Amino acid sequence: MHRGSATVAFECNGVDVDVEAGEGVSLLSVLREQLGITSVKDGCAPQGQCGCCTVLIDGAARVACVTPVARVAGRSVTTIEGLDAITRDTFAACFVATGGSQCGFCTPGIVMRAAALVEKSEGRLIACAEVDRAMAAHLCRCTGWRSVEDAVVAAAAALRSNEQPPASTGAASASPRAALEGGVGQAVGREIPLGAGGFSDDGAPRDALVAVPLPPGSSSASVSAADVEWVLGESLEAARASAGKVQGRRTTKVEQTPLPVPTDGAVRLATGWVEPAYLEPDASWCVPGGTPASPLANGGAFGGKVASPAPAAARELADRMGRTVRVVFAREDVVRLGPKRPPIAATATFSDGVLHLGGTIVGISPDGALVLPYRVDEIVERWEVCTVAGPPVSGTLRAFPLAERTVLAEAAFTEAGVDRAGLVADARAESVLLDTCARDPDGATAGARVLLDAVSGVLERVEIRVAAGDPLDETVLRSYCMGAAHMALGWVLSEGLAVDPETGEVLDLTIRSFGVIRAKDTPALDVVVVDDPGPALPRASDAVFAAVAAAAWNAVAAAEGARPESFPARETRAARRLRR
Questions:
Q1: How many whole angstroms separate alpha carbon 350 and alpha carbon 352?
Q2: What's the pTM?
Q3: Distance CA 580, CA 165 (A)
């Protein structure tokens, strides 16, 4: 029992419940830890900024992680399990039919808010702008928002007219395409938008010993495992209280590029640290002598969890303690310990058939073959690796180093006024060539055009053409391409982390401070899948990321009359508009 705890009675999904909770204990904690309702996700608790834990309280959408359970005494709480079956099934089918759910971690909260929106509409048609406003309380990293908007509008229309929801996409083709894009197995089906993606912490025994990372500067007793200091507790709440969990914060300091912009080269670019911002925090659990649960669950976190310390720590601590151990990261732990996209300071020049790329990169060697969709007479690369104070970096993050090299190459060709039609490597690249073009190492090719209003800075539209062999499932492929485009726009215009240049401490710990573009600011995303005979090719979305990033940089350069020399391009009209 919690110290100073009291009994709180409320109705949950139509059933009267009595729970024990101390002062300030959140509704999210009670739902997940005591009642075992794991469809309600913890993406940032107690920041209240990602929307993954959204439930209905007396019919109104509320974020459970910042709602003390005492406030729901005598009231009605509804999770996705308690929705009317027709409403729940319709939303699930529409999210699958539109590609509005990928990993599925954020989707249950989105569905709950969308269900409240539909109920409030009282049968009238719902506009896309209304959906975007409702999604202001939510983050989605995977889908690029437009497919989410399509799903909500389609579900509202089906419920209004009492129509049958669309048929589910067959997992026989959808799941393999999802796995090709994410790099790990991923399920596609109606259960995924409802929160049943098999996330590691959802399946952990609630009577397990809980281990949480020790925040910096804490004096709490801890144990070492997998190169991290851990604090143990009999519950998640107890472990975090013992650790002195650092509350997320957003600094007033503006992020800076850790490396100076080079002075030579026709094209110059410096970037800072970028948070992958996957919504599911790292987690694992293990019985003594067992195999730890994978933190990847129903998605690969864009490569950000490849080296997660959670599984090894769960196994080592379980063996040491002789008990099942559950390892759980908070959002702040993910930011402090998780890998970032490595900052670079680079130049590019194209002259006399020779492409010159090079500069400095933080932390890792830029090994791996340069991949460009052009037949260039010669490519010269000169890279140096340096170490600066800052968070860990990784070359495993999706689209690295393809994106950095593509934007530099595309800008170099643009500055040189080169007719790229003569440089196209093959017919596949030519078939997708728009304003920019990129090709993944495994052959998937994408072209992109970004339409930006030069006066207002409004991102109006992104046009994408992608060739990836057999698409397997075009809905899933389009969804991944939209998500990649959304992430690319953020990388160029809005995403970054403020880092103390002396200590390397990350100063932005709230999930909203990463600069992820909101639903209302996401432009129309048009994706055309090119007829491309041949076997299915992986990571088409990586090629889309690179192509859209390059197109965005070129669009900003045209709108501003000069090419920004650092990402995010904070001082452009488009970036200023995104910060409103």
A1: 7
A2: 0.95
A3: 37
